[in-house]
Amino acid sequence: MSTNAIEVSNLRKRYGKKEVLRGISLAIPRGSLFGLLGRNGEGKTTTIKALLGLLKFDDGTINVLDMNPRRDAVKIRARVGYMAENQAMYDWMTIREIRRWVASFYPLWNDAFACELQKRFRLEDAAKVGTLSKGQSSKLALMLALGHKPELVILDDPTLGLDPVARKEFLREIIGLLQQWNATVLFSSHLLYEIDPICDHVAILDEGRIVRASATDALRERIKRLIVPVPNAADAIDVPGLMHVEIDGNHAAIVTDEWEIARATLSERCSRGMGGGGIEVEDLNLDEVFEAQVIGIRAAGPFRAGHGGNADLIRTHHASGGPAAAGDL
Amino acid sequence: MRALLWKELREQFGRWLPATILMTGVFFLLVRARLVSIRETVILIDVIGGCILSVLLIVETFPTERTRGTMSFLYALPVPPQRIWFAKWFAAGLSIFAMLAVATLAGLITAAFVEVDLGWFVLATLCVCVSMLAFQTAAMPVLMHARHEMDAALGAAAIAVLSASWGVNTMYDDALLKVFGQLSPVAPLFNFFNWMGRYWSMPANFQEFTTKGIGLVADHRPILWSLLLTIGIWIVIPAACMWGFRRGRGRST
After folding, report:
1. Is B60 exposed, middle or buried (0-12, 13-18, 19+ CB in 10 A)?
2. What are the chain B neighbours of A60 within 8 Å (beta carbons)?
3. Domain A4-218 has CATH 3.20.20.220
4. Other CB atoms closer than 10 Å to residue B253's CB: what's the count?
5. Tens-place pLDDT, residues A227-278
6. Is B190 within 8 Å of B170 (Cβ atoms)?
């Protein structure tokens, strides 16, 4: 039995001329809570559908719970709890009917557990699915996804469309539930603050590629923001591990994934008279890491106009953030 | 499969009930009013009506589920997609059959009061129902090996149209039937019912049939030839379908 619940290697998918997945490689350890981050349309749902055998992919290999989705899609879906984004269900069914109906497809369905979840979520047996609020519908979908106590849970943007209060409540429920048994969880979202408190591993998907994959703590430990006094923008850009830079007057906020080396480099420059004052080091939350990784590189565009040579440096750095496996850092 | 069928039948009942009431009413009125002959009435209601409704019931299920967004929910269940399509088709087939049965029963009751040949009426409606069911059954290997919803929907629609054409053909018997009818999967069934109907409608022949039994069947060589041809067709067509779809299956997930 593989130590990873999911292993993806060089996954490629093209819709017509558009290549949505450009060689994704991922390894999700068993028992981990893995966050798949990415903006809308970056290929998160496509990746998940490929994992479940719901989508034909062009190239690459996938291993889910030691099974191949090309051959064993039905077996995989029987062992995985999947909650799709904006999950629509049959409005005319009652909660009891839909629970029993879904149960009939899962050989390992645990009805006592499903009923317990239903009670916890305060869903009435006789209520029609069509009469539920958005938050209740999400809870029902979660109940149906977890009713067979799956060893792997895949949640694809589960809080999409929920208001902030309902979202918090829903996440609280998820965290409470996931602590009950040692399931592996793949949580896909574009809302970073959602994933931050839940996930212990994270991968960032950008333009069809995994640009970073790591344990969340390691990511936070490695990526920091340095506030440096700089008289010249070029000094701020030529920094090891640069991910993002913002210059405000004589100070630069530099996000780097090699902050210790970067700090040493900048300290040396400071001592050579680059600027006055000390270097401040700030911790980043996942939101800021994501922004630096994905948006920050693009925001570096304006620098190209004024500092053509440095733009090359930024592009080189971007290219180096290619496919990576969890624990690479 | 039972769960899928239950869901499909529950969803189709809402469409089935008004359609059946409508069809029964029209049948009743047409027979009573004698606006067209009883033959045209059967064609109009059982064949054309049955065909249109079966196309609607089968084909409409896919876009309806897509619009509601429930298709992805259905596909995410641990069942092969072919089983989902098959359940949709099977439930539609059952609905159509039930619809025709109810409408026919109503027509039959009405016909009893307007002095039409009941033997012919029973024979004709039976032939139509059996034809449609037989064509639907022939579609089974196609649907079970379809790779996309479109294959399943178009296949089902094509078969419904074929059923209707065949039903009309059945009604008008004679020349066309002799040329094309023998190539149909239901040719021997039609011949058999047609043949039995003739004997039923003639008491002397009916007695002859009951006394001579199998010996009489042996005298009807065209029926036997037709039966052999049909068995061949029923083996060749599904086998070709399965071979074709299996070839393409390796490319699907």
Report:
1. middle
2. none
3. no
4. 17
5. 877 666 666 667 777 787 777 777 778 888 877 787 888 777 766 665 555 7
6. yes
One-letter amino acid for residue A270 of the chain: C
3-state secondary structure of A35: strand
Measured in whole angstroms, the distance separating CA B99 from the mean position of its chain's CA atoms is 11
**In Å, how far are A216, A254, A267, A270, A280 from A229, measured between CA atoms?**
29, 11, 10, 8, 10
Q: Which residues in chain A are closer than 8 Å to B252, comparing Cβ atoms? A: 56
Name the DSSP letter for residue A86: T
| B147 touches A at CB < 8 Å | no
The rounded distance, in Å, linking the Cα atoms of A275 and A268 is 11
Question: Which of A1, A34, A12 minimizes the C-alpha distance to A184?
Answer: A34
Judged by DSSP in three states, B146 sits in coil
Domain residue ranges of chain A, discontinuous segments joined by + = 4-218, 223-320
B2 touches chain A (CB under 8 A): yes
Q: Does B68 touch chain A (CB under 8 A)?
A: yes
- CA A58 from centroid of its chain's CA atoms: 23
ipTM given for this complex: 0.74
Helices B149-172 and B81-113: crossing angle in degrees, nearest 10, is 20
Whether A92 has its CB under 8 Å from any CB of chain B: the answer is yes
For residue A281, list its beta bridge partners: A226
Nearest to B110 by CA among B24, B39, B172: B24
Measuring CA to CA, which residue among A28, A50, A63, A23 is closest to residue A208? A23
pLDDT (tens digit per residue) in A198-237:
788 888 888 888 888 888 888 778 888 888 776 666 666 6
Q: How far is residue A258 CA from its own chain's centroid? A: 22
Give the residues across from A247 on adjacent strands. Answer: A252
Q: Return d(Cα A310, Cα A306) in angstroms, integer.
A: 9
Among chain B residues, CA nearest to A57: B253
Query: Which chain B residues contact residue A137 at CB under 8 A?
Result: none
Taking the C-alpha atoms of residue A223 and residue A286, their distance in angstroms, rounded to an integer, is 10
- What is d(CA B2, CA A329) in angstroms, rounded to the nearest whole number? 50
pLDDT of B119 = 56
